[in-house]
Amino acid sequence: MGKRTGKHHYLIGQDNRSASELDLDTRLELLLEEKMHGISFSAYTKGQKPGDELTREQIEHRMAILAPRFKWIRSFSTTQGNEHIPRVAKAMGLKTLVGAWLGEDADKNRNEVDKLIELAQAGAVDVAAVGNEVLYRDDLEETELLDFMAEVRERLPSNVPMGYVDAYYEFEDRPQVTEACDVLLTNCYPFWEGCALPYATLYMQDMYRRVQKVANGKRVIISETGWPSSGGNFYGAESSLQGAYLYFLKAMEWATEDNVEMFYFASFDEEWKVSGEAGEGDVGAHWGLWDENEKFKYSNLL
């Protein structure tokens, strides 16, 4: 997700810095007693970027790190080796949120959608995501997205729910997209709206509840949320190792306590996000819970 402007909303006066008196490692240990819900899979190792072919072996290596800690894995594409991600996840006993990456290239879109259906028919998909932030990026018109969603819903096995991934406010602003979803997949990033850390988890919860209000009783999943450990600031939001750890703990504690389905972003740092398709600047390389060398950043517990 890139920078967002014009949607700033601060919960001034509500401060959750005293959420727990337990030390951070103790809080993490409590979370690890049961597997956390979900994590976004970071496939690209140092020197790799989207468009490079991923191998099953590199995916198996990283999946083995994540499988003991999480119940679900989220993937973003179904081509160029990304199709191995849900297969490997299933082999390791995980559930899968599998995305077809849609953009401006019609041929690539067709390949992504066809492969998503193939994976679902093979039993590798528990939730299907048709596109990720294509409306936010203006890659597709809403009518084009709705056509893809209708096609996928028709071709998917009936027991596989289908949704679309975008920022929380897109579901408020686009009722036809909301209606077309079986499940609403919402990205919630206080950092990219310049929200200071003490208010960030409260704001993230507010984003989630806003989607719930327009969901008409449908299942709502937080498909992405996270905080960078380095790389600079965005208005009042400051990236730091300590801040990222605090946000991770508070977000996961809330999701666990309130039975909220949440996929944390992300698993591993990826350097391509600095100047690649994401174009997030230095901060883009520092969203992982593990660094690019696969070392857990925030504790020696993992």
The helix content is 25-40%
- The CATH first-level class comes to Alpha Beta
CATH architecture type:
Alpha-Beta Barrel
- Choose one word for the global shape: globular
Number of strands: 10
Strand/helix succession: HEHEHEHEHEHHEHEEEHE
Low-confidence blocks of residues: 8-21
Structural class: alpha/beta
Going by CATH, the homologous superfamily would be Glycosidases
User: What composes the largest sheet?
Assistant: 8 strands, parallel, barrel
Average pLDDT figure: 93
Give me the number of helical elements. 9
Provide the spatial order of strands within the biggest beta sheet: 1-2-3-4-5-6-7-10
Tell me what the structure shows.
The protein is α/β, with parallel strands linked by helices. Helices cover 35% and strands 16% of the residues. The chain contains 9 helices and 10 strands. Strands 1-2-3-4-5-6-7-10 form an 8-stranded parallel beta barrel, surrounded by 5 helices. Strands 8-9 form a two-stranded antiparallel sheet. Strand 2 (70-75), helix 3 (84-91) and strand 3 (95-100) form a beta-alpha-beta unit. Mean pLDDT is 93; it is low at 8-21.
Précis, in short:
The chain is 35% helix and 16% strand.
Key traits:
single chain; 302 residues; alpha/beta; TIM Barrel; eight-stranded parallel barrel; two-stranded antiparallel ribbon; 10 strands
Give the topology, please.
Blueprint (H helix, E strand, L loop, with lengths): L23 H9 L3 E5 L15 H11 L3 E6 L8 H8 L3 E6 L5 H16 L5 E6 L9 H14 L6 E6 H6 L1 H6 L2 E5 L9 H18 L4 E7 L7 E2 L2 E2 L2 H17 L4 E3 L38
Parallel strand pairs: 1-2, 1-10, 2-3, 3-4, 4-5, 5-6, 6-7, 7-10
Antiparallel strand pairs: 8-9
Helix pairs in contact: 1-9, 2-3, 8-9
